[in-house]
Amino acid sequence: MGDALKRREFLQFTLAGTALGLGAANLGWAGQPEKRKLISPGCRRSKVKVARIFMGNPQGLWPKPNLDLQAEVASYQASFDAMKAELADVEFLDLLAASPEQVKAIQDQLKGVDGILAIHLNIGIMPVLQAILRVGKPTVVFAIPYSGHEWASFGALVKQPEGAKLDCMLTTDRAQLAAAIRPFRAIHHLREAKVLDVTTNLPTQYVAEIKAKFGTEIRQVGLAEVEKAYQAVSDRDAQAETDRWINEAVAVVEPPKEEIFKACKLALAFERMLDEAEATVLTVDCYGSMWRKTILLPAYPCLGFSRLNSMGLGGICESDLRSAMTHILFQGLAGKPGFISDPTMDEATNAIILAHCMGTRKMEGPAGPAAKYKIRTVLERQEGVVPQVFMPTGKKVTQALLVGTDLLLYFTGDVIDAPDVDRGCRSKITVKIDGSAEALWRNWTSGLHRVTCYGDLTKDMQRFCRFTGVKLVNEAV
Fold first, then answer.
1. Which of 38, 55, 96, 477 is deepest in the core (most CB within 10 A)?
2. CA 371 to chain centre
3. Separation between Cα atoms, residue 129 and residue 144, nearest integer Å
């Protein structure tokens, strides 16, 4: 390749797989993302911005002299192209960097990214990596075997102040390139998110703290705004939605059709409210200021919450803002909704039963399969309309709660049952705990609710917490 690579060979900008040779002065973000309802589950405003910096030394002698750095970059580009669908919500700013000066030349652009993916090509890249870390952005180093000997310093580096926002992946599995971006996506989602909170309660200090830490906007919404949106939904549309829910149900047990109609009309009103506000999450104070012996809304919100969750938006019970934030985090990390639950313990089977009246049909994400359900009443009130969902079994799940701005509690387990018993809330899954049920209940703090997401998100949460200064605590050990 020669000792002196041409400048245009180092500086490139790519968007959706199209490479454009640009000088440093011209580097920038190309256009606006296509305008549509959701760019990815849980995000509607803009794409995730990731700097993809290929760290290569033209004079490096390992893994071999005269390594073709451009060919190495092209091989990675092929890997990214194979994951195009998974990364459709990502804009890449690309740089092949042989010196710290080349990183410094685009530092203004780097300030606008959500994270940096630094790909290790050959030996002699530590000065480049140190320049990247000085930018102060969350950074993941990806290194396959034979990249270089620098890996032997990474363990010490992540313990140093300059490595506070650094994590590393040393693997031949190039599918992990997409995993590296997940915490960047979660950070982006939280910053872009807007939550509508239907309540008469005044905003708390928590709202301001969340905005300051993560950028998430939480806006109070009154009953009048809900009523206006409800009245704007045509009876024809509400009836069509009602017919869908009734026709697809395994059974309609208690609620009369007129109650299902009102619940479906309110569900469409919720979608309208989120669209008009360019928000992604809605929660209702349904056990507080929106309830005085009977619900003050036109109908119970549970079916509407379930529908939003299956669409890639968010419907959160009881004005639980901590669960709303956890739901947004899960959507960013996994593209899947959360299931808020009131748990109950069983030490005999080392299990926890996660229960809530409102279940979500598409717990694997909007493009995933839809679970079976019955249409029921809210059990403890014997009124309203909820979908009793029979969620998938035989799957690994993660339960978590983002407490305040600096603590994430979690545990993992396997779903071994989806009980259909007339006891507790309607929708349930039994989870065999990874760890100890006794340790879990002895460690339990911060209220009853936890949010469950399908999949083991431990590694993703570890990176997110490292990059945001949040403490991660496993409650089951």
1. 55
2. 21
3. 16
pLDDT in tens, 283-314: 999 877 777 666 688 999 999 999 999 999 99
Q: Coil, helix or strand for 446?
A: coil
Q: Which residues of the chain have pLDDT under 50?
A: 1-35
**Which residue carries 């104070």 as its tokens?**
285
Residue at 177: amino acid letter: L
Give the DSSP letter string of 332-401: HHHS---EEEEEEEEGGGTEEEEEES---S-TT-TTSPPPPEEEEEETTTTEEEEEEE----S-EEEEEE
Residue with tokens 């808020």: 340
In angstroms, the CA 392 to CA 474 distance is 24
Beta carbons of 89 and 185 less than 8 angstroms apart = yes
Q: Is the pTM of the predicted complex or chain greater than 0.85?
A: yes
Element (H, E) at 196: strand 194-198
> Residue 137: which of 14, 50, 234 has the closest Cα?
50
